[in-house]
Amino acid sequence: MLTITELNEIRARVRQHLSVRRNGNEVRIIIGGGTAAIAAGSRQLMAAALEEIALHGTANVQVSQRELDVEADEHPAVVVAINGSEVLYKRCTAAELCALISRSVLTPAANAN
Amino acid sequence: MPYIRSHVLICAGTGCVSSGCKAVEQAIAAEIKRHGLSHEVRVVQTGCFGFCKIGPIVMVYPESSFYCYVKPEDAEEIVQQHLLKGRLVERLLYRDVQSPKPTTFFTDIGFYKKQYRVALANCGAIDAESIEEYIGVDGYQALAKVVSSMTPAEVIHTVKASGLRGRGGGGFSTGLKWEFAAKAPGAIKYVVCNADEGDPGAFMDRSILEGDPHSIVEAMAIAGYAIGARQGYVYVRAEYPIAVNRLTIAIDQARRIGILGQGVFGSAFDFDIAIRLGAGAFVCGEETALLASIEGRRGMPKPRPPYPAIKGLWDKPTLINNVETFANIPKIILRGAEWFASMGTENSKGTKVFALAGNINNTGLVEVPMGTTLREIVYEIGGGIPNNRAFKACQTGGPSGGCLPAALLDTPIDYDSLTAVGSMMGSGGLIVMDENTCMVDVARFFLEFTQDESCGKCVPCREGTKRMLEILEDITKGHGTADDIDLLAELSTTIKGASLCGLGQTAPNPVLAALRFFRDEFDAHISDKKCPAGVCRELLTFSIIPAKCKGCTLCKKACPVGAIAGTVKTVHTIDTAKCIKCGACIPKCPFMAIVR
Q: Which among B6, B7, B266 has the least Cβ separation from residue A3?
């Protein structure tokens, strides 16, 4: 029979996966979308972001896409929102984004200040 | 484990399945694959979102974008624009009937704003066929809590303190029912889930079974622990194939993972569940008839007492609760009796799910705290009456309830308030009727239903409803007499008092409520031989208003029996002897010259 400890382990694992459907995640990574952004490499940024989050295995991060208010030559752009406070990063590279995620995920409160 | 950035939830309740959600799901999955997004986007099939009118519904997370009326050909645009480029597909977003502006987020939609979901919390939110997703939203935590840290008496005390009352129609205290079953002597006891939902237009229980079947499995196990039962049965009608399938999957998963079976969560408590299919007889919703059907006998009620809690299935103490009642149990155990009792009114705690149907803009499932008024449900959640027609009545309680007029729109919905005004809560059917509805015909419809569903065991129900139906049919055909009203009232009193089970005891209610609130319509049918709403065909006379007729001949061409005479640019006339009152001419007239 399943034990309560095993039940709680499943819950913790699935909660992480279900965080995509939850409002109020501490850290939100919003990658600039649209044709110009894709041409400038936003898809590579997305792949790097997903890989980095998977590496940390955290449940408090959410990744989404939307068209950002930047010039075409400022792509790829990324907004990192920590506890509702947004910071826009223009011409962001995959390595820079991974570093941002790593910092935000590990110490979101510190980054918000 | 790869991180999936987006979940595309596709409603796979019966309503959306009927409107083609399977093809939409396949098309979206194919487009996701074609665009190389399979490793970052996941398609999830959920239970009912509740807003059945606008299906198939697709919800995209994390944005909570709510797309409606989605077709397979929309899949490419959703994937390419939303999932790949981060742009909303505006044309598929929900638009309120009052405003052309699209609503971007699910939580901003008027239909959902005033709702508070407890029993429906997981419907449309998780994959109904995944025990892991259920566990991920605290599923089976309540069962773990009761078997590891509560005594059966504490569980019953919690359910009693919550104030939960049976959601199937009776409204009896759930905690008291559990206590009776627990105290009944006997080593073998049973827990039964009544999923024989039979009210016309009601589909609350079906949606819970389709969207959150594990909550029923968990609640039944909790009930088994509380009363000392080791076996549960779900009695569900075979005409709910999706619900039966998902419930079967849920029970299999719970067994396979080691939740159902021997030694639940390492305790000394054993529990298992089996499904029994019903053939869809309305009377089998009555608990003694239901038990007879599970035992393999013809579904017919028997006199109570003894109540099933004392002598039920195979003469053993049996606890019977309805699906929606069970769906509240895990939340009550986890969040506490006080939390549940903080919602609702003094004697009706918690929330209630209603199937909103009829002449209403937003049809679907709604869950509101007890005490919410009919007006709030009809106008704020339901979006009002289509085509700005006037509200005439609201039917609650199904064939056992009654129609309430506009003057009672501010009645709070709770067990006692509805009973006080001559209707009842019932299982949660809520049918809205506009000014074009004939209340005599509605009374006739519900009596035709109960008469048809009467099992025939007791004379008052079998013969009495038949006679009442004949009288109502006479009235709607223009053959009513002045004595009919008194006769209907007398028959109603006898049938209510002398019938064996709830079916007969409540069958006259729709007629009594119609007589109470819409007596003028009965009088018009009987005395004036007129149907004010223009519904009862035998009482209609079609005629053409000469001043409006332009002689266009369109009505003449539409008449299937050649009852309309006239030539071009001359006023037409209808031969009432030939007219079959089919109404085909009315929509053809561009000048609104034909009246009935």
A: B266
